[in-house]
Amino acid sequence: MTAANITVSETPLVLYTLRRADDALILGHRLSEWCGHAPMLEEDMALANMGLDLLGQARELYSYAARVEGRGNDEDKFAYLRDVRQYRNLLLLEQPNGDFARTMVRQFFYATFADLFWRAMMHSSDPTLAAIAAKSEKESAYHVRHSSEWIVRLGDGTEESHRRAQEAIDELWAFTGEMFETCDSERGLIDAGIAIDPATLRAPWLKTVSDVVREATLALPSNDWMQQGGRSGRHSEHLGHLLSELQSMPRTFPGATW
Amino acid sequence: MYTQALNSSDGDERHVEDAERAAQFQARIDADERIEPNDWMPAAYRKTLTRQISQHAHSEIVGMLPEGNWITRAPSLRRKAALLAKVQDECGHGLYLYAAAETLGTSREELVDLMLAGKAKYSSIFNYPTLTWADIGTIGWLVDGAAIMNQIPLCRCSYGPYARAMIRVCKEESFHQRQGFEIMVTLCRGTEEQKAMAQDALNRWWWPVLMMFGPPDQASQHSDTSTKWKIKRFSNDELRQKFVDATVPQAQFLGLSIPDPGMKQNEAGNWEYSAIDWDEFKQVLAGNGPCNRDRLAARRKAHDDGAWVRDAALAYAEKRRQRATLQAAE
């Protein structure tokens, strides 16, 4: 016997919160996969730090979603007992770690967005989301600094690091558009000042990204086709494997407390 | 080899000065003074400490692997965050200890290369596999518990940088130990399956943990001089006994059986344990433990896969330096 999926009552605010929680959990999980295997000990520390920040964000957001939903779900039920079609994270964040360049470019693309997002969300009319935003913004500002420094080092380092960094940008670029999309259920939240319209973050995001990429002697792709689907549970094949590992214990031992 | 380099760097003057300096050095140790990096010290003291501190650092880094094995499968988000933070602490201990070892004149890179080449040892315990979640609790409870027993006396070690490193490391280890015990408490209060998992983990880890204290006193190579230099303040068997005496009541509290049916308490209150299988210990040290190959392979892979990243960072730093020089010249 294995533990069954929970059902989630995805009201707009629950869905909105779960999407951000899933972003943080999935990227935090990916970063935690590096632990013990990073290119240098200092980077083992840094990747774990960022992973811990994201796990902390995920836990706060899940707990808030559970309170808003009010149906007996909690952070662990959201994390461990939803399947791939119920996850709402960005496709970018479930992409495998690949080499260090791939991990850092993924981090850089997302952190640059997240920093702008959380800074704007500090003004949310929802006091819990505003408080989570205030904490998360400080963390994401560090993630931007750390990852952008690496983009420059890798891009302007050796021929090999330049090649790997450029490949990472080319491979991940198509997943960046999804960050700025809004769905109908979010409209009401945006009008109420609870959520922000991510489309407004696109220009400042592109400016930071372009500046760093230029300094790194790298280039952004001209291809502007963007993948979508994560927000509605249409994921890449990678997420299922991540979840089967992440969820193995609670799925194998239903109802146990750890 | 670093040991030869250090021996030769002491030079010929040793013949002349050694006796007097060594006597002064020993007098300082006897007076419980701390030896600091720039102080004169016998080459053998330097060599012993370099070996011990770097082995300790390697143990922290290799020790990230068995526990890291469960980060992606931790059974709750709270456990996942705690485990990731714990393994990160171990990495921090490694960095801190390599820095302490470097004060004796050997670089971190050289020390790490020796470990990757299989020429430097790390704690035998990390050559055992973590098969279930209960192993994570057991490692915290017993492995960190044993490490604390070993390391608390090192806070008073004669070599200043090592002693100071140990003070901080011990604080974190004692937190880890409590965390591990708390995992065990949760398992033992859980379902039958969870309790069986806890017992199974204790069965597998008990004897390897006792071996962590090193060979019995009559067979220990390094003890005499280490004691004289106040690097070591208790013998292997003394520390092992302290550990067993502290652990038995904890196992009783958990309702778990220590896998040593012959164990009994003597009149002095000490728990007498059965003979340890020192052949197993020797085999693990010789590279034949269940995970020796996997551990070294994982560290080598991280090192090799990361080479281009480290090269890039160096190349970029060099470019920046050149640009700054050019700018200054303009």
When the domains of chain A are counted, the total is 1
Q: Main beta sheet of chain A, described?
A: none
Which CATH architecture of chain A would you pick? Up-down Bundle
Give the percentage of residues in beta strands of chain B: under 5%
Helix-residue proportion of chain A: 55-70%
CATH topology of chain A: Ferritin
- How many E-type strands of chain A? 0
Structural class of chain B: mainly alpha
Q: What's the shape of chain A?
A: globular
pLDDT under 50 segments of chain A (min length 5)? Answer: none
Helix content of chain B: 55-70%
Radius of gyration of chain B: 22 Å
Largest interface: A-B, 48 and 47 residues
Sheet with most strands of chain B:
2 strands, antiparallel
How many helices of chain B? 14
Spans of chain B of at least 5 consecutive residues whose pLDDT stays below 50 are: 1-13
Radius of gyration of chain A: 18 Å
CATH class of chain A: Mainly Alpha
Q: Beta-strand percentage of chain A?
A: under 5%
Q: What would the principal axes of the Cα set say about the shape of chain B?
A: globular
Give a structural overview:
The complex is a heterodimer of chains A (258) and B (330). By secondary structure, chain A is mainly alpha-helical. Helices cover 62% and strands 0% of the residues of chain A. In chain A, helix 6 (127-155) packs antiparallel against helix 7. Chain A is globular and about 55 Å long. The mean pLDDT of chain A is 97. The N and C termini of chain B lie far apart (45 Å). Chain B has helices at 2-9, 13-30, 43-62, 64-68, 77-102, 108-116, 133-151, 160-188, 192-211, 223-228, 236-254, 278-288, 292-305, 307-329; strands at residues 264-265, 271-272. Chain B is mainly alpha-helical. Chains A and B meet through helix 1, helix 2, helix 3, helix 6 and helix 7 of A and helix 4, helix 5, helix 8, helix 13 and helix 14 of B.
